[in-house]
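Hey team,

Filing this mostly as a record. A colleague (T.K.) asked me to run one chain through the structure pipeline before their review meeting, and I want the input and output archived in the tracker in case anyone asks later how it was produced. No errors, nothing strange. Just documentation.

Input sequence:
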Amino acid sequence: MSIEKVNEVPFSVRKKRSKLGQYWATMGFIFQIIRDIDPKLRYMIDTFTLFGLIWTTKTLFSLVGSSLTGFRVFIWSRLWSLNLRKKYGEWVVITGATDGIGLEYAREFANRGHSLILVGRNENKLENVKRQLTTILSSNKVVTLKADFDDSSPELFERISKELQPYEKNIGILVNNAGVMFESPNRFMDQTDEAVMSHVKVNIVGVLMMTRAVLPGMISRRRGLVINISSIAGFEPLPLMGVYSASKKFVEFFSRTLEYEYGRSHNIDVQTIVPSYISTKMTKWSSILQKPSFMTPDAKSFAKSAVATIGRTKFTTGYWTHGIQWFAQEWFVPTWFYPFLSWNYLRGIDSSGLRAKDS
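Output structure:
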């Protein structure tokens, strides 16, 4: 390379290259000393070098792949939207549709021309939401279904199945959104029996039985989409929110098996959403999380992003900054350190005043 060409390279870049060259020269010098001490060790050194090269190559490909996936899922999907009504069908069933994420999912699908079946436990709220959505859709395109998953009796889901029968052949999408979270991060025995059982009934049984109610129609038509809202809380066991974390991991595993069982054989898509914190009433125990921010979007921003990812990926955080958080945890937070980090983080952002005394 000529002197002119060298001078065209910025000094900071030449400095970094120089340091990198010194590093590899030093490593080569050390390896040569080891070989000189005992020629037999050269095979060990060459093996380590080969493994290092393989690991480095794998890491680079993984980083590039993650970046391209992030672009496709969170950026390209917003530039080029898919016709979900044509792909899956007209009707969308959404549980937990009267507040937060469920309500905003309903608005997004309404804006895309879908008819809606809204499932919620409060009849007044359901009627209020219906009035809001009939400014976008005609009233006969918005159906409400009152159901409290805290009941979770066989009779409840038999009733739901019967009420869904008139629409069964046209239900293209099910959004299992209904969920509960503890009123405050606390240890297992500091939570109430009612709160623990509610996690099982709503977060687990509700997902299973609503899927059983809707899936047969999708199977008969050989098309459909099930969206299960899990959580980044299921990334690793989460102290102080252990039952919530476990219930969301259950949802994730159920989604993966459901997709394998009915994906190729029956053309049913299953998407798992694993968001981090979103500014909704579920996070009212933290004043920090109640303020929408860069890392904590409001329900509207999240839903708009999450709906755009449909058809792009089967597993996603739904929101781009949550994707960065997942990536950072996966790459830089050791498994042994995660519980300690989570414990102190949850303690730090809890402003509910319901924290139990440590003993």
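Quick notes for T.K.: The longest helix spans residues 41-79. DSSP finds twelve helices and seven strands in the chain.
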